[in-house]
Write a structure and sequence with these properties.
This protein has helices at residues 2-19, 35-42, 45-50, 52-63, 69-82, 85-98, 102-113, 115-127, 133-145, 150-163, 165-186, 196-204, 207-225, 231-241, 244-265, 268-278. With 288 residues, the protein is mostly helical.
């Protein structure tokens, strides 16, 4: 189960990196689009969903060294299958369109089009790319020697709580970990498989550890993403997030991301088992 715990944290880190920014760089506005389609593109959801499998894959490569190579490669193939960017984008886009609200969408678009809104989405896009992870690690080391003031830490905490990013990351982390554990279990010889109830209980026991890991990862990624913003600019961002329109926007985004990614993660068990068998990988016992 120690290796199962390592895999759980790998997936949690990947999801945490994705969850920290709920928006990314704005794309070219198309006046023919409806309000919700415009929000989908201007918020950067389209580009982030396209690269989600890359983020998880990067985490498996860099954080999954405790796993044997055959297992790690099988997991990488399975994750790319279930988190297909095209399918994720289509599902989230359709879900958001169904949540259209005239007044709130108008206020949200006003924020996304504003100079500060566009600046923030550019920063979020840059911080969400897998290739900046070494920079983020170096930044974390600097924080140990020169931590931000308490006021800055409080702002970042408010931002993460208001956006719902923590709940999103934890829900998806637990769902994916459960599905992957089931796939690893299914790939075992029959006489070495763990009863389903025992496996679920073992995963649930890791919830607190995953939450702590995600909270730390999310806090760091947010500090890193907004490191060049003044406190007053983050306050302005919070003013939008904590407004009626901001709460509507983030609740809609989180709800659709959770629904879409959990549907995808639900197929992880089958995909992992298939890739393990196809690659000749038989995982060591994951029994506690």
């Amino acid at each position: 189960m120690n290796r199962m715990r390592s895999l759980t944290l790998v997936l949690a880190l990947g999801i945490g990196i994705f969850a920290a920014p709920l928006a990314a760089a704005p794309t070219q506005q198309d006046p023919r689009m409806g309000a919700m389609e415009e929000i989908f593109f201007l918020s950067g959801l389209e580009s982030q969903l396209a690269s989600f499998s890359d983020v998880v894959d990067h985490s498996l490569v860099t954080q999954g060294q405790t796993l044997p190579q055959t297992e790690r490669e099988a997991l990488r193939r399975a994750m790319r299958r279930i988190f297909d960017g095209k399918a994720l984008r289509q599902d989230v886009r359709k879900g958001l369109i169904a949540r259209y609200d005239s007044e709130h969408s108008r206020a949200t678009l006003a924020w996304l089009r504003s100079p500060l809104g566009r600046q923030i989405t550019r920063l979020e896009e840059a911080a969400s790319k897998p290739e900046v992870m070494p920079q983020m690690a170096a930044y974390a080391q600097k924080l140990l020697q020169n931590p931000p003031p308490e006021s800055r830490l409080n702002l970042i905490q408010r931002l993460n709580e208001a956006s719902g990013a923590m709940g999103l990351a934890l829900d998806l982390g637990m769902t994916t970990a459960q599905s992957v554990a089931e796939g690893l279990n299914e790939a075992q010889p029959v006489d070495r498989r763990i009863p389903a109830e025992q496996l679920r209980a073992a995963i649930q026991q890791q919830r607190s550890a995953m939450e702590a890991q995600l909270r730390s990862s999310l806090h760091l990624s947010s500090l890193f993403a907004y490191r060049n913003l003044e406190d007053a600019q983050i306050e302005s961002y919070l003013t939008f997030i904590e407004s009626d329109a901001g709460r509507w926007y983030h609740s809609a985004v989180v709800a659709e991301l959770v629904a879409t990614l959990e549907r995808a993660a639900g197929g992880a068990g089958v995909a992992v088992a298939q890739e393990m068998r196809a690659g000749g990988a038989v995982p060591a016992s994951i029994a506690p």
